[in-house]
Specification:
homodimer, alpha/beta, seven-stranded parallel sheet, globular
Chain lengths: 332, 332
């Protein structure tokens, strides 16, 4: 009889569950880099996405951040313009203008409108936004699970001296040029996180904060009741990426939002605004650009670890390198 | 002192108020001819339009008959295809198909969708369909006032052996090939005529019935509570135009509808179905095609005057000649 051989299989499961708090364009680029960084690793990525920019327009439901991420991860985004679908046209929008209906300054691209109508149709059928998002994203091979932070309609409004308006009106029509006195998330008190959000945070191995607008993207995510507590209770480290490089916003008009809440447009100021986890804030660590390395001491003095790395996401490789740096910082 | 001259101005106001009960494509061509026939006369045309084909699809409100008439009178219709907008494209529809949302057999053209979204936006703002129609038609120079017969959602459903379905599904998806057992106007009991409809009928000098589907177009108009009584009480003569020429439907699949309600596809059978006004029916007079002149005696025997004229609306001149014949018949 041969000797009996015992084979023990050790399952060395190092697959990580990564959760990313995210806004639109900046979040989309970061997520695309992260997907590249963990390709073939078995790591899973869940994006918890801001819905404060969402709105009803001409009877259809628009979700700009979810769509920006979906299009970018699907490779269907317009790289030149920086937003929306590639190969876009505006035939329907031109008709709406001719009828004098809708917001003439808000262009609904035809391909984009296909997404809005698909979403609207499913919402009108009674599905919550999270289930609708599952259905809509199933068309593409995203490699990232998209979770709206809430199924409730919690739209951001901006208080200005010219009255209170939907965030989109302030941002797109007025190019954020009207001084904002405050940002208000409508009906936020009665909102709850969408199914899966709290569980994703609780089960995460790493939680990343994308370099999105700290006020109207990440701020609205954090504003949904239950999110801050879940982040505080999570076992995973929380690592944020600064949306400020060399004292300026990378894109968009985030400085106007920061100014409204009295936060300087500076990597250290945003870190202090988020706060250190040890003292009840959000962050264990914060990635700043090499050009802002001089601010490291202030941030670390507040109890937040700092890594100074190249933050510019010029393309997929630079975005992937940034995502890898964020994961490396989390593992420290 | 000069002699005083007294000038008496006689206002010889012969302007007529013409009301047309109408469905979609056939009604649109007839109305275009009528507008041409009375051009520069000062006569006014009000179309009371079927809304039984209307529906919600992917969250937008579609009103096929109102749109067919509007596009045709605006000169924006597709003459070759026979329906919809000229220069149409289907980019949004292709997106909806990719998402697996909506009815893949029902194409929403992009330009057409502009109209649907304008309508939907105004409806969602709380305007009734009649006010929405005023707003939407104001874009064009139609020369005809369009009144939906009702502001209520009274959609036609078709009872078949394969179940009950929306008229559009039966008509467009199944090409009216499933035998129809009955047509049901949903919630018709609680519907009322739209503002202006009863007044238009009461004040009309002539009432015309377009050569539209007698069952699902004119039939649904007549089905709205109050319409039949208003027509019976009207001082104007009611003159109908046969949608049947030489024992066949001019277009569409109206024969399948007539069969379902047990009416032969014949000019005399449709006249008898509408009935003579003297005996509680709809018609004072009925225009039939010259090829059907042999049926005159039967129709006149039922108390309905008959004019046999060319009914084919090949183009605007032939349509205008038909409309003139209808007005002449009314004046007899």
């Amino acid at each position: 009889m041969p000797d009996r051989v015992t084979v023990v299989i050790y399952e060395n499961d190092v697959r990580m569950k990564i959760v990313v708090l995210s806004g639109g364009v900046g979040g989309a680029r970061f997520l695309r880099g992260l997907r590249e960084a963990v390709r073939d690793s078995g790591d899973t990525i869940t994006a918890v996405v801001n819905t404060g920019d969402d709105m009803w327009l001409t009877g259809v439901r628009i979700a700009p951040d979810l769509d920006s991420i979906m299009y970018t991860l699907a490779g269907a985004n317009d790289e030149v313009r920086g937003w929306g679908r590639v190969g876009e046209s505006e035939r329907v929008s031109e008709e709406l203008r001719a009828y004098g209906v809708g917001w003439p300054w808000f262009t609904l691209g035809d391909l984009d409108l296909g997404t809005h109508l698909a979403r609207t149709s499913l919402l009108r059928d009674g599905l919550p936004l999270s289930a609708v998002t599952d259905r809509i994203t199933a068309r593409w091979d995203l490699g990232v699970r998209l979770l709206p932070v809430t199924d409730d309609e919690v739209e951001t409004h901006v208080v200005t001296d010219n009255g209170t308006m939907h965030f989109q009106e302030w941002w797109t029509r007025h190019r954020a040029s009207l001084p904002a006195r405050a940002f208000v998330q409508q009906n936020v008190e009665s909102s709850t996180p969408a199914p899966g959000v709290l569980a994703a945070i609780a089960e995460a191995d790493v939680i990343l904060v994308a370099p999105s607008n700290p006020v109207v993207s990440i701020g609205t995510v954090l504003g949904i009741p239950g999110i801050r507590a879940a982040l505080a209770a999570a076992s995973a480290p929380v690592v944020g990426v600064s949306p400020i490089i060399n004292g300026a916003v990378v894109r968009g008009m985030a400085d106007a939002c920061l100014e409204a809440i009295g936060v300087q447009t500076a990597a250290d100021a945003v870190a202090l605004h988020y706060g250190s986890r040890a003292s009840g804030g959000l962050l264990n660590a914060w990635l700043i650009d090499e050009t802002d390395a001089g601010q490291s001491a202030v941030i670390e003095g507040a109890g937040i670890r700092v890594s100074a790395v190249p933050l510019w996401m010029r393309d997929v490789p630079t975005s992937a390198a940034l995502a890898r740096a964020a994961l490396d910082t989390a593992a420290l």
